[in-house]
Amino acid sequence: MWIIAQIFINAIIAGSVYALVASGLTFIYATSRIFHLAHGVVILFGAYIFHFVWIEQGLSPILGVFLSILGSVAVGLLMNELIYEEQRKRHAKRLAYLISTIALLMLGTSSIILIFNTSLKTFGIQTTVYRFDQLNITLMQIILIVISCLLLILLSAIVKYTKFGKAMRATADNDEVASIMGINTRQIRRLSFGIGSLLASIAGILIGLEFNLDPNMGVYLALKGFTAMVIGGVGSINGAIFGAFLVGLFEQIAVWYFGAGWKNSITFVLLFFFLLLRPQGIFGLKRFR
Amino acid sequence: MFPFLIYILTLVCIYAIIVMSLNLAMGYTGLVNFGHIGLFGIGAYTSAILTTKFDWPFVFAILSAGILCAIIGALLSIPSRKIKDDYFALLTLGFLFVTGAIFINWTDMTRGTLGIRGILRPEGFTEPNSFLILTFIAALVTFFILEKVTKSPFGRVLEAIRDDELVAESLGKNIDRAKMTAMTLSGFFVGIAGVLMAHFIRFINPASFWLDPLVVALAAVVIGGLASLRGSILGVVIVFAVSESLRFLSLPSTMIGPMRVILFMIVLLVVILFRPKGIIGRADLD
Amino acid sequence: MLKLQNISKSFGGVQAVKNCSFEIEESCITALIGPNGAGKTTVFNLVSGFFNPDKGEIFFQKQNINNLPIWKRSRLGISRTFQLSRMFRNLSIEDNLLIALREDDDKFFKMFMRGIEGDAQEKNRIREMMDFVGLKKDPSTIVTDLSYGQQKLFDLARALLNNHTFLMLDEPVAGVNPVLRDTLKELLKKLKSKGETIFVIEHDMDFVRSIADTVIVMDQGDVLAQGTPVKVLSDKSVLEAYLGINI
User: Fold this and answer.
1) Chain C: closest CA distance from residue B143 (Å)
2) Å between A128 CA and nearest CA of chain B
3) CB contacts < 8 Å between A and B, how many?
4) Which residues of chain A have pLDDT under 50?
5) Does the N-terminal or the C-terminal CB of chain A have fewer CB atoms within 10 Å?
6) Subunits with at least 3 CB pairs below 8 A relative to chain A?
7) Does the beta carbon of C137 lie under 8 angstroms from any beta carbon of chain B?
8) Could you tell me if A271 lies within 8 Å of chain B, comparing CB atoms?
9) End-of-domain residue from the set C107, C135, C163
10) Cβ contact (<8 Å) for C115 and B152?
């Protein structure tokens, strides 16, 4: 019995990380209609900068967080401005965006290897472990869940209540109409890449603290985020969050049942069945909320 | 210098087969198949296992690998009936991840991350020169067969499917069967390429069929141009020229791998931005 | 020739077609009219097989085609155009039309040894068809270079070349200039005199009046009236449905 409870706890931990990734992807998809898979390396840039500043240089972690946000946002915005916006000017089609985002993902992964080298990065933080009978959860994990919940709430608040959120929803609904109505859609896209990348850096920091860092994580994170998006119904933030927890859950079940080696492949089985059987996602929402 | 040149030329021939067969699926039929490298790996592993573990002769091993990959390729085309475009592409990327996991975890057969050593070259082709001739002939045969297919009315139907499959179907074309045929051929040839790779390098491990070859194939197919087999060959040559020119920069060896990928991807991005049809391609991505 | 029996289809919560029944006679022009959103194009798409009806049966030449895939319906002889011209955008006019003309070029083994060029007879038919619809362009032009009006003509030519016994035209004169509209009117009349069965969606009432033998009026997914143009277009409920939309 306790193993099931432990699986659920681990699923919530992993799920809250994936939720940050998936909601960032959705946030960006809503305004740009791009599956911005390179988001995976934007996350990693944040994580690696934080590690570099704090652990390798021994500077203050606050400075690390600050620089990591700066770095991620810069990388995310650059990707948008230099590649996606240029493609948009030339009326690129969906598959062309897909190729370029994959290219950026690989480019980013290799840049991280080049700058920070391939060795596994650990933070080596000692954290309190809470035991309830046979269940384990660390303080770090609790902090991770809390921060990611706060960020997700903040994100929905931005979408729901701010003027920017309103303009964003309009752009998501129909960017042509939105731009006729006087919304600067390019600016909106820029902002959504900015905010999405900001989230990414924090997700990266949390991931680094909990799971250690390896340059290939970007690819996995991006694809898990995408799977979560599909499960929840592409375009819906709440759906993406739900999908993220489902991905987390299935992964933990796979680890328990088949062994850790199959952890990353189970996601694709999930992706396959959802695309085939329920392409509109669990909630079937097409509109951005 | 000379043995090195032979080595590179052999790789160019093998990659030419990979990229031409990828172009059949991606450039001609519009099925962006990131799982292509997964099929490449399946071909390599099948032959490696059959020849080292079960002592099969090379000829039977290469045929079985080709046929197995053809069948899996055909199966991969089935989801494309419902799952389209970028969703299909990402699904096939998932297929690559699943094959990767199988290579790593099915240790009884694949020896996991240790990889399979001691794969022998076929008799008569053990020397690098003769093996180069073998791969060159394979590449040439692939080129002529695929050229024949793509320049036939059937090839035109494939292009119609790429451009608008609903219209193609409403003009009476059995698009499911046509897509399956294209993927079968594509799988067969990339399987053969996998076999040649395994017996050329004589050692394979899961990392040989991971993202690095995908990056090379993707860069080559887009740079050379979609729906052009000559473009694919040109793309492979360009990619290898770029990659090998790095050797003259005398970089530390740990930097060469990532630098290569970075260069490929920059060239790929430049091409996709400024020349979306590639250098001599005839179609752009929808 | 074509018979729809109690066809219903909804998308999400929207009922596009409900309990719709009608029959179409051979060798005449039947016009399908109705306000925007009446479900006309949905009917076309249901007949083509782009999706299956939630309820009801479709018969083509007495055969139930409900569960046939799109391509098999085409092989039975259903050919169509699209409201917004769709084409194989990376191919030339000739290649586009050859695909429509050839019956079994989707068969790999049969086609493997054949040349890609059409033979003289096929090329001739394409030239003739282009002349017939008045598409004055070099056949090797890439189709995306065609103007809007030319795309309409091209679309018609493709539907005509595709082996068929039944022709469905989705708004053939929408958005074209008056001269071209008259040309198309003459074309359709010529086709009818050749014995073609034509099913056409059209908004332009003058056009409908001058070509159609039978008019079917749809409103809110259902058939409102069916009969000769004179009779139907003087019907009060029809005028009401069209009120505010070009009478």
Assistant:
1) 14
2) 34
3) 126
4) 289
5) N
6) B
7) no
8) yes
9) C163
10) yes
Alpha-helical regions (H) of B53-174: 58-77, 85-105, 107-110, 128-150, 153-163, 165-170
What are the residue boundaries of the structural domains of chain B, listed by start? 2-207
**Domain for residue C124, yes or no?**
yes
CA dihedral C177, C178, C181, C182 (to 10 degrees): -150
- State the average pLDDT over residues C35-41: 86
Range of the domain at C44: 1-77+165-247
Dihedral through CA A164, CA A168, CA A174, CA A177, nearest 10?
10
Helical H segments across A83-236, by residue range: 85-89, 94-116, 139-161, 163-173, 175-180, 185-211, 217-232
ipTM over 0.90: yes
Regarding whether C141 and C99 lie in a shared domain, the answer is: yes
Residue B265's closest chain A neighbor by CA? A103
Put residue B55 in one of left, alpha, beta given phi > 0 → left and psi -120 to 50 → alpha: left
Question: Do C121 and C232 have their domain in common?
Answer: no
DSSP B55: -
C138 within domain boundaries: yes
- Residue C49 maps to a domain: yes
Residue C47 has pLDDT above 70, yes or no: yes
Q: Is C176 helix (H, G, I), strand (E, B) or coil?
A: coil
Q: CB-based burial of residue A62 (10 Å sphere; 0-12 exposed, 13-18 middle, 19+ buried)?
A: exposed
Residue in A98, A114, A264 closest to B258 by CB? A114
Q: Which tokens in the block code for residue A60?
A: 């203050």
Verify whether the Cβ–Cβ distance C88 to B163 is below 8 Å: yes
Considering CB atoms only, which of C71, C91, C162 is closest to B174?
C71
- All residues of chain A having their beta carbon less than 8 Å from the beta carbon of residue B257 are 110, 113
Which of C83, C106, C123 to probe the B interface (max B CBs under 10 A)?
Answer: C106
Select from C137, C163, C189 the last residue of a domain. Answer: C163
- What is the Cβ-side half-sphere exposure of residue B227, based on CA atoms within 13 angstroms? 24
Tell me the pLDDT band of C237, cut-offs 50, 70 and 90.
confident
Mean pLDDT of B107-134: 89
User: Considering only alpha carbons, which residue of chain C is nearest residue B180?
Assistant: C108
Unique residue bearing structure tokens 């209540």: A161
